[in-house]
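Hi support team,

I've been running sequence recovery on a batch of backbones for a student project. Most finish fine, but this one hangs at about 90% for roughly twenty minutes before it completes. I'm not sure whether the input is malformed or the queue is just slow. I've pasted the structure tokens below so you can try to reproduce it. Let me know if you need the job ID as well.

Thanks,
M.K.
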């Protein structure tokens, strides 16, 4: 696939890709959200994507992801998280950490937890499990998603206006960043398991 074809598909499905990546990133399936937001800003700067449409699909992805995670936590509860949480990064250690922070100030955690990988994935589930009122949850999720996504998009937008970045190669840069993210995620998992095994061996 050449550059022209790649840009063609991006122009056709770019907004859907933005929605899917932000949605999955929130519900717990690994996705390089910040890198994607930055690259989106670069593409907007060069007229490859619309600012308005990009922000709408980004916000919808993040916001709907929060609502879905909240509903899963509310109606399926802790047993579901305990059984399947490991598949989306909700291990017991991370769960205990978020529970402690969440209990101190639930709405602040919902709003600013977007900036903390792991925190933004777990907080909506925990909000549902603890029966946090839906209306305040919606309000603070919306506020949090806006103040998290817009700065990264604008950073990419103004960076491209200041430093020339060939827009034809932005999709390839995105692919490279995605591959690096996956490698980082796998290595992190391996190191975590190694430490856990060493800890269990030492305890024996």
């Amino acid at each position: 696939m050449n550059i022209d074809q790649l840009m063609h598909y991006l122009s056709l499905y770019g907004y859907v890709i933005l929605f899917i990546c932000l949605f999955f990133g929130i519900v717990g399936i690994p996705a390089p959200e910040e890198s994607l937001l930055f690259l989106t800003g670069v593409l907007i700067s060069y007229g490859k994507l619309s600012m308005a449409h990009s922000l709408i699909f980004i916000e919808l992805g993040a916001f709907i992801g929060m609502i879905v995670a909240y509903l899963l936590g509310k109606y399926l509860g802790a047993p579901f998280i305990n059984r399947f949480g490991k598949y989306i990064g909700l291990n017991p250690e991370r769960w205990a950490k978020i529970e402690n922070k969440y209990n101190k100030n639930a709405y602040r955690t919902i709003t600013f937890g977007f900036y903390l990988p792991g925190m933004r994935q777990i907080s909506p589930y925990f909000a549902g499990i603890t029966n946090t009122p839906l209306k305040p949850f919606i309000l603070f999720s919306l506020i949090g998603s806006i103040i998290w996504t817009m700065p990264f998009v604008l950073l990419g937008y103004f960076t491209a206006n200041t430093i020339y970045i060939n827009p034809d190669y932005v999709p390839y840069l995105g692919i490279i960043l995605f591959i690096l993210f996956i490698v980082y995620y796998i290595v992190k998992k391996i190191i975590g398991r190694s430490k856990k095994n060493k800890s269990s061996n030492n305890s024996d």
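--
Follow-up from support: It reproduced on our side and the slowdown came from queue contention, not your input. Residues 42 and 160 are 5 Å apart (CA to CA). No action needed from you.
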